[in-house]
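Q: Structure for this?
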Amino acid sequence: MLEVIDVSGLVTFQDSGRHGFASYGVPASGPMDWFAYQAANSLVGNSANATVIEIGLGEAVFRAKRNCVLAVTGAGYEVLNYVWTFPLWTSFFVRAGWYVNIKKKSGGNWAYLAAAGGFEVDSILGSRSTYLRGGLGNGIRTGDLLQTGKPSRELLKLAAQNFPVEKYMVYSQSPVIEVIAGPQNERFTKEGYQTFLNSEYTLSKSFDRMGYKLEGNSISHIAGADLISEGMTMGSVQVPANGQPIVMMADSPTTGGYPKIANVVKSSLPLLAQCEAGVSKIRFKEIMMEEAHEKYKKTSEFLKNSEVWWAK
Amino acid sequence: MLKPLGDSALLVQLGDKIDPAINQRVHALNALLQTNSTAGIVETVPAYCTLLIHYDPLILTFNQVTYWVRDKLIQVDDSLNRKPRQLEVPTRYGGASGPDLEAVAVSKGISTTDIVRIHSEREYIVYMMGFTPGFPYLGALDERLIMPRLETPRTLVKAGSVAIAGSQTGIYPLDSPGGWHLIGWTPLKLFDPTSETPFLFSPGDIIKFIPLDSDSSLTGI
């Protein structure tokens, strides 16, 4: 059990997402950075869809009410107590009464705090993910007592697990974000599409879990930016009339009405999620479906088979 | 026409206009896919003239999903014969409730009174739901009211706002960003996650807007 001592920014519970209500307009939600989310759960021996705390654009301080094992993953944060720093991407033992401070620094936006046993939160519409705009879940507030479930094994066996260095997601502030073209790239001029692929974009300050507004060279449409609204997903790159792309993120609306020039592939979503507003230089690269699936499989199958490295 | 949307969704395009017959085909295909679902299909999102199919790329390849959908497209029967629900939406037009009504009137060269009459005299089909939980996309809008979306979307539109864009009209269930022209407001609650029936509308419902006098009190509703 953790007590929330102080919290700022966008701090929410997230599990693997809310599926099955998209036809009523309910976003999938889930983590902004699925790689860091899954790694955090793996490190503390949790199941792949256990509930964690996502810390975005702020910081959080907790006090352990009981002994527990925690792990923090992600980018752009450090984890401290009064005496030392806990490394990210490692599980660590926390004694009852200790403080854990997850503090923002530069180099990313989102951190994931997993506790052995997972956080116990009410399920709404089949998921424990918080979707603040839709009133699904409450966010996390100072004074809250956060319950955790039963760890999968003895705490001492869960502590001090390291995520293998060679398997890290290579977060970068000048990432190449891979995309599948379309489904409406024909709605843009040839120059417009080349502009999208060949120039650098930065993340605007107005970004959140719903979408990342990018700023850079304007992408020209052939015949206006109005589309009959249709389904979209995390990673969809919509381009409104002003020519500045918006990448839909975890709380993406289920449908949208701007033409979509491309869609970020799953294996690149964590890299984009951790780009810093006004700092990162983002480039896009078109890849083919087979390559996209291959990369996603490689990354996520490793995470799913974490028992293999975990037991060592 | 089948097109990929990234590496985990397939877009099935059954037409390119807002048309009750095309939309009926979308819902018929959706129903067929639902009753014959297969491992790896996550969920489907019917829209005006498209159906988006989310799949898990760890289980299915793009070609497998495509093959599965093509097979169902051959079998689909459009004659979905069901009786739609009819619902009334009390709406206060203009003023603070519909801050864009005046601008729409000026742009279309029609009086605000006529805009309200044209918007509220017609029955609309809930063609699809999306954008935010419980948001109904209603059509088709009278051609005299067709406006492109705002060039730069508003960062905050209040819940209950009745809006138009293109040949569509809709109602914002939640405070959210939005790029449509706001012409009115309804006190109805479109989404309540704590309710056993969280959504006021379902795709296929028939909706009619009932104008409220601008000076009438809404406190009793």
